[in-house]
Amino acid sequence: AAMTEQVSYSGPQRIFSGIQPTGNLHLGNYLGALKKFADLQDAGWEGIYCVVDLHAITMPQPKGALADQTRQIAAAMMAAGLDPDTSTIFVQSSVRAHTELTWIFNCVARMGWLEKMTQFKDKSGKDAERASVGLFDYPVLQAADILVYKATHVPVGEDQKQHLELSRNVAARFNQQYDVPGFFPLPEGLIEGPGARIMSLKDGTKKMSKSDPAETSRINLIDDTDTIAKKIKKAKTDTLGDMPETVEEMAPRPEVANLVGIYAALAGMSDEQVLAEYGGKGFGTFKPALAELAVEKLSPITQKMRQLLDDPAEIDAAMAKGAEKANAVAEPIIEEVRRVVGFWQV
Length: 346
Ligand code: AQP
Prior knowledge:
Elements: E1 15-19, H1 27-42, E2 47-51, H2 53-56, H3 66-79, E3 88-91, H4 97-106, H5 111-115, H6 118-124, H7 133-147, E4 153-155, H8 161-177, E5 188-190, H9 225-234, H10 247-250, H11 254-267, H12 271-278, H13 283-310, H14 313-341
Parallel strand pairs: 1-2, 2-3, 4-5
Adenosine-5'-tetraphosphate (AQP) is lined by residues 19-20, 22, 28-29, 31-33, 156-157, 159-160, 196-198, 207-211.
């Protein structure tokens, strides 16, 4: 279980979150992360949003692709509604404090904590001996990302719950080990809500993921209207008949629950409300309605993304400004950390 503390952090509330520049963004990334970021910004939260390219290199990336992939994620963040003047949007590798704090946290985190991480087990597969040390250390870098800004809240999808708990443990242990109660906040997830766990369109028990080899398992943000409609039409359901009438009836039907959840998240409705409208109807009615809704919600974002990428000067200027703003927050904090650790002061 995550540690708790006697003295709690009393600094300002602040959000941090990141997205890796690896492959195409999908509906899960949008609903679990991007859409939440924009909603939180609009609700008045101070937010720091990062394209985490240091995380991306924990797995091999195609030669020369990293900068373009980074620009795509930056474009997606902006297209989803993050405003570089209101929020801080930047590229992780342009703020050196992330890597410096990672090293210090490497000496705070315990091997046993990292060995429990299921994402490492999943991603390293059967050949864990050949995985990069970086992949193993990924959650420590993530803790540094959050805490180098003393961020208190982290909007992410449910797959990141375990990593977030590790961040809390690192923060608590640092505070304890260096006898600085309340120095780092113990960051809390903002995970709940529709869209926290979007599943594969082909298997309702597996999360929708960039790395799934089956293209039809996910809806990409850059998919055109026809492709989105086709993928939804072909999405797996089951042989248990028409749409369920209640949430209880839906419980043993993971594929159906996923489609209803997607509808709910896109429409800003609850599952109950979706079932009140579509319960008892056939999938021949529900799927086209879902496809239409997905296109309606995603196409303005896709369009804006394409427009930004056609003339990347705006993105690049935003990232430069974001790096400056992020550095301005991180530098004084890493300075404090150096003092707390007791390094030589020049
Ligand atoms: N299926 C999902 N449902 C809800 N949220 C999701 N996220 C990812 N998948 C889902 C959230 O998206 C954010 C960005 O995550 P990332 O950049 O770490 O992307 P990822 O985890 O590499 O994306 P994938 O598709 O999950 O990649 P692979 O295939 O590598 O596993 C995070 O907030 C994440 O929770």
